[in-house]
Amino acid sequence: MSRRYDSRTTIFSPEGRLYQVEYAMEAIGHAGTCLGILANDGVLLAAERRNIHKLLDEVFFSEKIYKLNEYVVENSNT
């Protein structure tokens, strides 16, 4: 029965649950740690690189920190 209510973030189930929000919270629980530190002379970005799937090839494991240009770095959980 929950399939009717889990495709949109704005539709509550009869129990008053937002399934998409619950799925997002579950995904956050499985994500690695990302840390950003602002210093006087720069910024330090660090990300945990962990492989929770034994069959996942390390070569194709996605990075979490991307250099966009000389001045901008993007940090994400994938």
Account of the protein in words:
By secondary structure, the chain is an alpha+beta fold. Helices cover 15% and strands 23% of the residues. It is built from 1 helix and 4 strands, in the order αββββ. The chain has one helix at residues 19-30; strands spanning 34-39, 42-47, 65-67, 73-75. The strands form 2 sheets. It has a two-stranded antiparallel sheet. The longest helix has 12 residues, at 19-30. It is elongated, with a radius of gyration of 18 Å. The mean pLDDT is 74.
What's the structural blueprint in terms of helices and strands?
Elements lengths: L18 H12 L3 E6 L2 E6 L17 E3 L5 E3 L3
Antiparallel strand pairs: 1-2, 3-4
Organism: Astyanax mexicanus
Protein name: Proteasome subunit alpha type
Family: Belongs to the peptidase T1A family.
